[in-house]
Write a structure and sequence with these properties.
This protein is mainly alpha-helical. Helices cover 36% and strands 7% of the residues. The strands form 2 sheets. Strands 1-2 form a two-stranded parallel ribbon. Strands 3-4 form a two-stranded antiparallel ribbon.
Length: 109
């Protein structure tokens, strides 16, 4: 990544690396980008990209596994539907087995 790239673009690049069937958090992306206290900024970036199919923003949830960004997708349940299509179980707007499905951007995978 080039240092002059804007924050949103850098967040999108990290989101594009999230493996199919896995999730990460706004905070994990912010931490990876060296902006530990910028989880909300990552959230704004994901909200802005929720209609861009090249950025899997549906795979980014809050630190507890809750689908807090779901209202930014077309249709109230689209975020959940996209996750479920990848085999991720969601119950009451929360990722089931969140800890085992969590992907750390700092990992080599």
């Amino acid at each position: 990544m080039k240092k002059e790239d804007n924050f949103f673009e850098r967040a999108y690049e990290v989101a594009r690396r999230i493996p199919y069937g896995r999730v990460t958090t706004y905070g994990a992306i912010a931490n990876y980008l060296g902006a530990k206290k910028s989880a909300r900024m990552v959230g704004w970036a994901m909200n802005a990209s929720s209609k861009d199919e090249t950025v899997p923003a549906h795979r980014v949830v809050n630190r507890l596994g809750v689908l807090t960004g779901k209202f930014h997708f077309n249709g109230i349940n689209l975020m959940q539907q996209l996750l479920e299509e990848e085999g991720i179980e969601v119950l009451e707007s929360k990722v089931v087995k969140f800890k085992s499905l969590f992907w750390d951007p700092s990992s080599k995978i």
